[in-house]
């Protein structure tokens, strides 16, 4: 009996440390954040007044929150679409194993291991309106400098490109792993039947990559909704609030506005959006 009990408990003992850490640093803060969202208070006085859904009702009339939320949705859609398409294209182009493709993979993956702050500083140095490398090159070619970070449309484009550049290498590796699981015999049979590379892509590669594509889409969506450091360093949400996303609005509400309970309500909304999108994507995958 003791041997059977020990055998039954052994797996749980192995996962217990990770479960404990996850509970302390993830589940517990989430629970505190949910509780805080029903109160009003600050860092000094603590929870002062129970307001129920008052913070959530206030969100519906908060222009800064609604603006950052709309900016976030546009940003997520563009970034996720670009990341999925570019990472898949790179994975197909670099699928073959050789020294050249190995070096290319390393080059595309390097931005992934860089700190988001480093990425933001590097892109700000390149696209600065006054001292940026890009404008210096344009000036040497006789072209007028472009207000990359001070014009609304250019700033949004730079933020999106910087985010895609920092993420695409990671998802490229995932797609390469997915491509390697597709049997080569399928492509050989397709060639015998006269299928060209484009037909092979649409009829073999893309359908069999559906689970990988779904995983990449979910991960890229979650990471895009959490975007913060790169944008904070690159534009600080500017010009104006053109590139201020939801996470930065939460940060500014909590620390600059000294209103952690209201920020907690915004965090709960963000969590709900991510949960809903993930469930929808999983449901679509299950139906397919």
Automatic annotation (TrEMBL):
The keyword Membrane applies. One of its GO terms (biological process) is transmembrane transport. InterPro entries: ABC_transporter_permease (IPR051393), MetI-like (IPR000515), MetI-like_sf (IPR035906). Keywords: Cell membrane, Membrane, Transmembrane, Transmembrane helix, Transport. Its main location: membrane. It is found in: Cell membrane. GO terms for cellular component: plasma membrane. It comes from the Bacteria. Pfam families: BPD_transp_1. It is a multi-pass membrane protein. The chain crosses the membrane at residues 12-39, 73-94, 106-126, 154-180, 201-222, 262-282. The keyword Plastid does not apply. Residues 69-281 form the ABC transmembrane type-1 domain. Belongs to the binding-protein-dependent transport system permease family. This is Lactose transport system permease protein LacF. It comes from Calidithermus roseus.
């Amino acid at each position: 009996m003791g041997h059977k009990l020990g055998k039954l408990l052994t797996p749980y003992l192995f996962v217990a440390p990770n479960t404990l850490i996850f509970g302390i640093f993830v589940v517990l803060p989430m629970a505190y954040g949910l509780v805080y969202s029903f109160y009003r208070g600050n860092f000094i006085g603590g929870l002062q007044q129970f307001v129920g859904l008052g913070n959530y009702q206030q969100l519906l009339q908060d222009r800064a929150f609604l603006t950052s939320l709309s900016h976030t949705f546009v940003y997520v859609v563009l970034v996720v679409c670009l990341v999925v398409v570019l990472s898949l294209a790179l994975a197909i182009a670099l699928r073959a194993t050789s020294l050249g493709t190995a070096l290319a993979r390393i080059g595309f993956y390097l931005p992934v291991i860089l700190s988001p702050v480093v990425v933001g500083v590097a892109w700000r140095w390149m696209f600065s309106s006054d001292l940026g490398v890009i404008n210096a090159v344009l000036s040497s070619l006789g072209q007028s400098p472009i207000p990359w970070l001070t014009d609304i449309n250019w700033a949004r484009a730079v933020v999106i490109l910087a985010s895609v550049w920092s993420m695409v290498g990671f998802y490229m590796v995932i797609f390469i792993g997915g491509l390697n699981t597709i049997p080569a015999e399928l492509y050989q049979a397709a060639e015998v039947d006269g299928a060209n590379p484009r037909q092979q892509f649409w009829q073999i590669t893309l359908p069999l990559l559906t689970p990988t594509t779904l995983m990449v889409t979910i991960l890229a969506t979650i990471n895009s909704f959490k975007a913060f450091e790169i944008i904070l360093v690159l534009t600080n949400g500017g010009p104006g609030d053109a590139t201020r996303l939801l996470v930065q609005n939460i940060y500014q509400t909590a620390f600059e506005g000294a209103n952690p309970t209201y920020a907690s309500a915004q965090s709960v909304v963000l969590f709900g959006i991510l949960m809903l999108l993930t469930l929808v994507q999983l449901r679509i995958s299950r139906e397919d």
